Amino acid sequence: MGKQQEKIQELIERRAQARIAGGEKGIAKQHEKGKFTARERINMLLDEGSFEELDMFVRHRCTNFGMEKKQYDGDGVVTGFGTVDGRLVYVFAQDATVIGGSLGETMALKMCKVMDMAMKQGAPVVGLNDSGGARIQEGINALGGYAEIFQRNINASGVIPQISAILGPCAGGAVYSPALTDFTIMVKGISFMFLTGPKVVKTVTGEDVTQEQLGGAQVHASKSGVTHFAAENEEEAIEIIKKLLSYMPSNNMEETPRLKCSDPVDRVEDALNGIIPESANDPYDMYQVISAVVDNGEFLEVQRDFAKNIIVGFARFNGQSVGVVANQPSCMAGVLDVNASRKGARFVRFCDAFNIPLVTLVDVPGFLPGTGQEYNAVILNGAKLLYAYGEATVPKVTVTLRKSYGGSHIVMSCKQLRGDLNYAWPSAEIAVMGAAGAAGILYAKDAKTAKTEAAAAKEAGDEAKAKQIMDDYKKYILEKENEYNDLFCTPYNAAKYGYIDDVIEPRNTRFRIIRALEVLRTKKLTNPAKKHGNIPL
Which side of the chain, N or C, has fewer Cβ within a 10 Å radius? Predict the structure, then answer.
């Protein structure tokens, strides 16, 4: 064999060795845990045969604590680029078979390289995280590596989509990169995210807690809102990533993807004409409205198990990708609270950053009252949603189905927050507050007078007169409530001032939204020149 052939053979052998990373035992151990390897995950994500690997032969430079004897080509992360449904995507996948997937300086440099390339090319970055955290043997160099990654996450924010899948442990400083990206997916049973693990928690606070209780997928999906999706398995997690990418442009300079639509634009949904209950206090399911108006009933919900009183997610209208924000009357009557406000605000800001139009379906009676909300800064969190809608320059179409009261009316994409086309169903109640509350305030003196007179009659021993006074008062207040309802709790008062552009028949909602979006395709709107605003945090 000639020298050239020997060199080629060496390349082939080194590639083969790099592909098994930490070795067959490490791969078997990964599979025993019910987990896939880094390369298997990349193959599941990218189109077949499209992956181009980078930095396969990178090795760490650490010589502390015997690390010079633990040298692996690739250094614990597989990086490169390929396509998802034919569109360019950059990817890194941490390899838990190599020193536990721990992050050192060279691993960080590999990850930073693909993030830099993604920024230059204007393509999304997908991170498949499975790491034991910082490589302790490298000390400050590992911490510096994390900081380099975080800075790139920050620079890329709002420029290219960033998606993080947590497919194993993610602890300490490692959690901040996923937190800085646009969407995080965790897998039940194998994913964990926390700043300090159970042992540290026990030492510092005395609290006994498992990994699952502290930072499992279900905890972060339902309680903290840290993760946007909790998948049943890795295959589902990868499919979610693909679906998410299908709704997004590759970067902030592109328009949203547009697919061919087989669902008729003028499809009429007669069921919507009867979906609002007769009683204003009875709930109904907003999911039924969403599925009735979007293309083929398809809706990719984001943060499904967190703050269920508001619904956010992606859908299409006549093939065009849109972000949907909707109050949910069947959960807490659809009120806004701390969690619902920040959930909605983050989603609105993502859509605005990537030119995704917003469709808002409104049925909101107000903000949740109480010390719990006030102490947890419902004012600031409500202002986040207000800020997000007011700042957004993408097409904004709003449909008010029923209640839209007070401050909650304003923050849900009202006309004065630069809503482009604001429609209402005939059942819409747009007012400062509900009729009962309004009458109670407007006629408080009458209530006081009636109660005083009734009390005096009781003291005089005339129970019948006392009852008659209160019955007359209740009848009077009911008349005033009806009067307030007729004056203010209708869509026509808002329409009179142009705050509602049209009152529409519910069954025609799909057609009206699609036509609005078509008209708004050429919308041009810019915010005042500034370095950046100071969103209430």
Answer: N
**Distance (Å, rounded) from C-alpha 103 to C-alpha 133?**
6
Q: How far is CA 41 from the centre of its chain?
A: 24
| pTM of the full structure | 0.92
CB 312 within 8 A of CB 359: no
Q: In what order do the strands lie in the sheet with 77-84?
A: 52-54, 77-84, 87-94, 125-129, 162-166, 183-187, 229-231
Cβ-defined contacts of 254-261 (< 8 Å, 24+): 254/122, 254/355, 255/355, 256/320, 256/321, 256/322, 256/354, 256/355, 256/356, 256/357, 257/321, 258/319, 258/320, 258/321, 259/316, 259/319, 260/319, 261/295, 261/316, 261/318, 261/319
Q: 295: which 2 tokens? A: 């293309």
Residue written as token pair 């007729």: 486
Q: Is 524 helix (H, G, I), strand (E, B) or coil?
A: coil
Angle, CA 323 vertex, CA 319 and CA 327 arms, to 5°: 125
**Rg (Cα) of the chain, in Å, rounded?**
28
Number of H helices, E strands in the chain: 20, 17
For 122-165, write each residue's pLDDT tens digit.
999 999 998 877 665 666 777 888 889 999 999 999 999 999 99
Residue among 69, 143, 62, 65 at smallest CA distance from 108: 143
Q: Which two tokens stand for residue 514?
A: 């699609």
Judge contact between 68 and 113, C-beta under 8 A: no
